[in-house]
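#struct-pred
JK: can someone run the complex with NAP? inputs below
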Amino acid sequence: MTTQNSRSTRITQITQNPPASHTSLTVHQTARPNGFPTRDHFAFVESPVPAPGPGTALVENLYWSVDPYHREMMDGDFELNAPLEGRTLGRVIASRDPGLRAGDVVLHRLGWRTHAVVTLGTHGTRKIQQYEGVPLSAYLSILGGTGLTAYVALTRTLRLKPGEDLFVSAAAGGVGTAVGRIARLLGAGRIIGSAGSAAKAAYLTGHLGFDAAFDYHAGTVRELLATAAPDGIDAYVDNVGGDHLEGAIASLRDHGRIAWVGAVGQYNTAEPPAAPRNLFDVVGKSLRLEGVLVRNHTDVQSEFEEFLVPHLRSGHLSPDVTVIDGFGRIVDAFIGMLRGENLGKMLVRA
Ligand code: NAP
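RT: done, structure tokens with the ligand placed:
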């Protein structure tokens, strides 16, 4: 179905890749969701591929990240009927920016579109240092903001020490798998994860080196965690909030720490969470709870790469990703990620 929107743009329902190389596609949000978003909250808008003006470069995007924070932004931060933004990786195909050359691979935030006009240093645009043997998907997952979030939560917020026992929620997702892998490299003791299905829990223990994992649908998080970590935990990376935070507070030993990274359990509802009902135990146990925002830690990126890249190059570690092929499926990938259809970071490939 195609509807004419203006002289130069058309709104198109896309199920496949872009129709022609001279055509650019951009995703717009068209309505505010109440609960889970659907395809009807988005539209693909067609326009000619833009030409780079002085000081800018034209990028053909190759990989897109779809993130839980996009769901938060759909409630008001994303302007309706305007191009969405998100982290993406692309190749420069024409440049009038003296800092960029055709062929350069760049990370930037003008995602949810097939082509972008960028300037080095704006919208997060930076050239990536490509490491031999490291796949492109790594730069938007374990080696990108996802992995950096995990690394900062573990090393800066929790200051995890070797031998300490760690719990992470949404453990089979992008940040969660990165937390598990990096914590192991840092010498963590027992690593426990929660995820949305028994199959994911089995994957965590069978393939990702977790010591214990549980499906959070199988009971209360508080009881499931107490069973998985009968001697308690020292530290918790919270990706979910609510009942998961309550369960972690109950299992934390005195002087335990919580790195609060996200609250994906709350993004699709306007209702305030019922849990944690035991927040005051933070005092009784002398716990430390601190929020983590990766954008405050971009200065750690080079240290992080130095730490991680040797493991990626040696093949000791590979990025955990679910890759959906075709820009036309980006909305499905986004909704699928919110519903837990991903193992590792959810990415879309051109
Ligand atoms: P992700 O974990 O790869 O994908 C989201 C996952 O959330 C899904 O796979 C699903 O897995 C889980 N989920 C959905 N609804 C849930 C619910 N009601 N209860 C429990 N789990 C639920 O996404 P990500 O990009 O790695 O992000 C993970 C968390 O980190 C999010 O909270 C995100 O906002 C946060 N984050 C924060 C920063 C920062 O700077 N603070 C940066 C990046 C990400 P299941 O099948 O297991 O349910």
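RT: quick notes.
Residues 145-157 form the longest helix (13 residues).
The domain at 2-136+319-349 is CATH 3.90.180.10 (Quinone Oxidoreductase; Chain A, domain 1).
JK: thanks, will look after standup
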